[in-house]
Amino acid sequence: MAMSKSTNTYNRQTWEDADFPILCQTCLGDNPYIRMLKDKYGKECKICSRPFTIFRWCPGVKMRFKKTEICQTCAKLKNVCQTCILDLEYGLPIKVRDKALGMKNEVPMSDVNKEYYITNAERKFKEEGEASGALEGKAQAPSDLLLKLARTAPYYKRNRPHICSFWVKGECKRGEECPFRHEKPTDPDDPLADQNIKDRFYGEVDPVADKLLRRADEMPRLDKPEDRSITTVYLGNLSAAITEKDLRDNLYQYGEIRNIHISERQQCAFVTFTNRSAAEHCVDSTFEKLIINGRRLTVRWGKSQGKFEERDILGGDQPKTEPVPGIPSELPPPPSEVQQNYFNIAPTLAPPITAVSMIPPPAEEYGARFRVPFIGAPLPMRPAPMMMTVPPFIPRPIGLPPVAPMYPPPRVGLGIYYPSMDPSRLGAKPE
Predict the structure, then answer these.
(1) pLDDT tens-place string over residues 89-125
(2) Of 412, 407, 303, 287, residue with least CA distance to 356
């Protein structure tokens, strides 16, 4: 049976009309010259079931067409995008945002109460504007969990076309002209494959939010050192624009600060608190979320002084590496009784050694040998070498430095003798 005009237009004053949708950067796309199709009262809102103006557009090349799913009043109540139902400020599901801010869902789920609630909210928007506090996402300050999980850049991969069902069955005949993706679909048992707009809006059953919350639980945490005397906090990734006053103004709220040391060369700072509780409060509150002058700083615990002294004694803070297989390790130290005996010689008496020593000629022969009166004159004969006996070698006790022997032995009564005075050696100079 056909509906009359009066019945079809019942409560039409609550229908929504808009000139532009409320969208996030990801759904809008990266094309600045986007074209949209506007259909006034084209569909019903999937939350409040009121007719509203829908918009349809293509966010980019080789992307699927997208359209608005909920009305602007419902989007303003949760501060979400009309298409993806994600938070406009952080790009996160409503369940994650509400848990981080400690908020509860105030939108009723029954049809009568929901219509009454949304009608009053829409009237409040028109009278007081959007700054009246009805926007739940903007009514609270950002939390640490939101800063960790927030998306900082658009995720255009979400706008890709759907998978071609004919290609999955092996019956697609379009080839490269097919507007859908020719890829293997995901596992149907995967919870991410089953998502509902109403569950995402109310924050009840959202597999994407559950995945993000599990990721937040697995994020690294900074363990407290066992040494209770450590009250120093290390701050890294400093810039030249960050001064001691900036650090003191941002960290004084956690406790009394004893000293702040800034190393410009290493781009770091060491903040020492007066007690351990203040240092723990500072680390727990600023780990992975300390931002000063628009720069995110690295927060770590300082090391104890004992570790620094041990590091200096061992020769630097170089990390110990594992030995390479096939290369012999370092030799063990020698025993104490042979530490000075480098050649491992047994302390035994050696037999006497007989050596030949060349005795230089007397001074008269030395001068006459180089003052030849005429060519062919016979030179005086050198005396025969003298045989002498060297005393046996007696090893010195361990620990005393060795004494160099005097060679050649000095001549008694002839003054100081130098090896260069020997005429048989190269480089001897005549008198």
Answers:
(1) 889 999 988 888 888 888 888 888 888 888 888 888 8
(2) 407
